[in-house]
Amino acid sequence: DEDLFDSVAKAAKADIANFNSQELANTVWAFAKVGRSDEDLFDSVAKAAIADMANFNSQGLANTVWAFAKVGRSDEDLFDSVAKAAIADMANFNSQGLANTVWAFAKVGRSDEDLFDSVAKAAKADIANFNSQELANTVWAFATAGRSDEELFDSVAKGAKA
Fold first, then answer.
1. In contact, 103 and 69? CB cutoff 8 Å
2. Are 68 and 62 in contact, with CB atoms under 8 Å apart?
3. What pLDDT was estimated at residue 19?
4. C-beta separation of 79 from 110 below 8 A
5. How far apart are CA 43 and CA 10, in angstroms?
6. H or E stretch including 79?
7. Average pLDDT by consecutive 10-residue portion of the chain (162 residues)?
8. Which pTM value belongs to this model?
9. Whole-angstrom Cα distance, residue 99 to residue 65?
């Protein structure tokens, strides 16, 4: 319902300074999930998320960039901050988080070398836990971003055959 999302966006923008990292991620995720992008809300979340980046967990990082990419929004400062935070927290990403993070970066035309290298290393170590959608999204992201990792692609091919 359009009125409902307009009301939620207005209320969220008014109180965004009090949102914790999970609330920030969940808000943009919910809007993106239904295909809604409120420009002011997403801008407010980006600013608040950057300020609170140290408190985001791996799922929050992945969900936030996924939401922005899903609605076609790329906030350069947010994506830069998420890349740095994700690299630092890479050991805590699960297969879905890895796949969704590189998918989001590729979807908005970003190919952060350090991030993609870190995801490739983590994905190779965890490839047995990737489902077919995560494998496909990861390969698509690497191809779309113009990033190549032969060992990762070999691992994906073996995982897809299993």
1. yes
2. no
3. 98
4. yes
5. 13
6. helix 76-88
7. 91 97 98 95 98 98 98 97 98 98 98 97 95 95 95 87 65
8. 0.94
9. 12
- Whole-number Å distance between alpha carbons of 19 and 100: 23
Question: Residue 128 corresponds to which amino acid?
Answer: A
CA distance readout (Å), 135 to 12, 75, 92: 35, 26, 18
- In the three-class reduction of DSSP (H, G, I as helix; E, B as strand; rest coil), residue 73 is classed as coil
Can you give 22-52 as a three-state secondary structure string?
Answer: HHHHHHHHHHHHCCCCCHHHHHHHHHHHHHC
What is the structure's pLDDT at 162? 62
SS3 111: coil
Tokens matching residue 101: 């993070």
Number of residues written out for the chain: 162
Largest CA distance in the chain: 50
- Give the pair of three-digit tokens for residue 71: 């609605």
Beta carbons within 8 Å of 59's beta carbon, 6+ residues apart: 25, 94, 97
